[in-house]
Fold these 2 entries.
Entry 1:
Amino acid sequence: MLKSYEFPNDFWWGTASSAAQMEGNDAMDGKGKSIWDHWYEKEPQRFHNGIGPQRTSQFYQHYKSDVLLMKELGHTSFRFSISWSRLFPEGTGRVNPKAVDFYNDVIDELIKAGIEPFVNLYHFDMPFLLQEKGGWENREVVSEFSRYARTCFEYFGNRVSKWFTQNEPIVPVEAGYLYDMHYPNQIDFKKAVQVGYHSILASALAINEFRKIGEIGKIGIILNVTPSYARSQHPADQKASRIADLLFNRSFLDASVKGVFPSELVQLLKDLGYLPKVRKEDLIIIQENTVDILGVNYYQPRRVKAKENLPHPQAPFMPEHLFDHYEMPGRRINPYRGWEIYEKGIYDILINLRDHYHNIECFVSENGMGVENEERFLNEEGVIEDNYRIEFIKGHLKWVNQALTEGCNVKGYHLWTFMDNWSWLNAYKNRYGFVSVNLEKQSERTVKKSGWWFKRVIKENGFME
Ligand code: BG6
């Protein structure tokens, strides 16, 4: 018998993207360089097929028709980010009027199309001139961020009522300061902790600016609260998993939602000798400026086991000195990205938020599947038949639906992403969109089968299976 998965009438359906990944820099139009522009100039070979951020999907040129296509596909909301270095070419000081016009127009077009804009302020894209000053390592840059945030609230706050300070702030910490996947390519745990702490402070300061301006809507943060699963019930595996959870989830989650750092995390960093430099008044700001709403990005779980071998004595300290990653036999993998597919993870996250984070209002802000060479699935009508994406989304939506029936305060679902976009080091290797983009003729967009399927889901507020 078919089961019906129904969602509330006002459920937010849509997609998410980010400035650096979709705008394109072919027309810089006064934009300053971000760390991505700089790194690509320096080391283009690090990017898949040598494709850099200048050749992203050109939303900057085509946003009007792209928004119309979103409308056609039934979107009720869309998350994008403002590029700090487009608005402030030097990261601070002078505002670029063309950026103001552009974002004003994007917001207006979305509203005209009946699509609610969700605006994020930071998605991995530090202005290069501020990175030269140390980026998030530097307390001054933290203050610059709150100034930038305030400017955005002032310019756009009259029409935007869902704001987000940052997307996955743990990622620049890991990728930029531990694992050599983002600029500035450092491997330095001490700096990583300072950068993480400053990002949290920056978010709280931006929230503080938002509150000072008055009632302009809700403000939140978007976190990849990847659940940690221990290999076994053995206390050593359990401890390893708890440490991974503290470092990668609870650091940002507790600080953003509860305004405090878990005492176990503080003790751990203290024991390791890696407590960041903290000013007392900062802790009050963090405590008093928690989020109204939480975006949950979920792609894959984190499986953990106790360490099996001692690290090399000369190796720089890494989180992996405290636990090992666990490759669970039989796990399902998306081979193109190498990420495990585990749909129930989204339910576990939502139940955790219900039970331990006062059931804060939240939504699935990113979920998706990147697949390589999707042209092989083209049918005779020229449509990519991405049945695997439909199955992937359904699998997750079923668990979101289950969480709803159990009282979780989850308000929407956004796929990553609307149209195929540029995926950092992977450039255009894996495609995530409901809409494919012809890289040769940038303006050519074609809706995939999943896009039309999702349109029906939105219309019917659910699906049967
Ligand atoms: C999310 C990010 O973590 O994952 C996106 O917010 C990113 O920016 C997405 O594109 C998919 O990851 P990737 O590395 O395959 O692009």
Entry 2:
Amino acid sequence: MDRIIVRGNGPLSGQIPIAGAKNACLALMPATLLSEEPLTLTNAPRLSDIATMTELLASLGAEVSQLNEGQVLASACHGEVNPVAEYEIVRKMRASNLVLGPLLARLGHAVVSLPGGCAIGARPMDLHIDALTALGAEIELKEGYLHARTRGGLKGAVHQLRFASVGATENFLMAASLAKGTSVLKNAAREPEIVDLADCLRKMGAQISGDGTSTIEIQGVDRLHGATHPVVADRIELGTYMLAPVIAGGEVECLGGKVSLLESFCEKLDQAGVSVEQTDKGVRVSRRGDRVKAVDVVTEPYPGFPTDLQAQMMALMCTAEGTSVLEERIFENRFMHAPELVRMGASIDVHGGHATVHGVERLKGAPVMATDLRASVSLILAGLAAEGETVVSRVYHLDRGYERLVRKLEAVGADIERVSGE
Ligand code: EPZ
């Protein structure tokens, strides 16, 4: 397995291009099932998760071709559609569950494997099931597969989510777009990736309003047509690379980034003593002094502090002045980066959903292990300013969500290389 070696190498400077959002693209791609006409996504990120979704859609009968080195995904689903999403593929990526709503809308039935848990939590599907049942689906669990069907097609309904689940909101949005009548989703997720999906569905002819707020209204239509849509910039990749010059020193401009997608995160950086400036090309970031101040963080659904930036913020707090408490309210097991950071000399106490970080002057490089996507990148960030060499193993986790990470950090002066392992 490949490893990445990072050596603390002083301040960074230059520009880092931000790619299209993984979490938007993974919701946009299944929308191809909603129409017989082609759906073309531009600004698509080149990631292994996108390859997995491509494999899944192909198994369902959709053709997805990667053009322009994978930055354009041209998909079409005009032939026979296979309603079965196999465990073999679904188990690789939780977002595979986003084919459930579109298959129900297109075919009136679907058999989708439960994704199974993952490193950061059990990640059940009850909110998806409740939402689609509200639209008239009958869903039962048999031998690890959700068997869903509708009698006479999906019908518009009013439904309130118990929790503002991103995936359940996306499945509901896609299914309701082709349901008969009007639907209203209350306590909907408000993430920018939801707005991006709604924008794309509207281009396909869907009638959706209120996306980005907690109440979304969808007027079902008989059919959707093809469209071309640019994937929104990845706010989590943006937040991740914004922390590189804060941890290592220097100044970096993240091209294509928008501060407006990360207001809570930027407020915390401001409190910690970080300068963030929106330029016409992107977001310019630098540390105001030699050391940031410790700040407390609570992860919440958007527009709160993103759970997907909690591990990266913890890496920054390891060398902050003072003590920081990070509370993880979204996932039940998302502190697996903490023991690896402790191996690098960090002082972190984890109790349940709280991690207390006592800042130290400097971390020391060490061999560490990636456990999930965002934990792995937090170790890379920590290595940028650590004394000596940090060797991160199991970097396949990184390839799920960060395209060309080594090249992007090398370009701003980081001493980083990827070595292929046995
Ligand atoms: C999306 O996951 C993202 N993934 C996650 O990013 C992100 O962390 C998460 O939203 C929260 O923002 C994609 O968009 C592909 P949820 P999703 O449904 O939709 C519980 C990354 O690193 N829940 O909002 O699965 C669930 O267990 C990934 O890029 C239920 O209990 O998130 C979790 O604790 C990680 N029942 C919480 O809700 C359900 O039916 C948030 O889940 C569904 C979810």
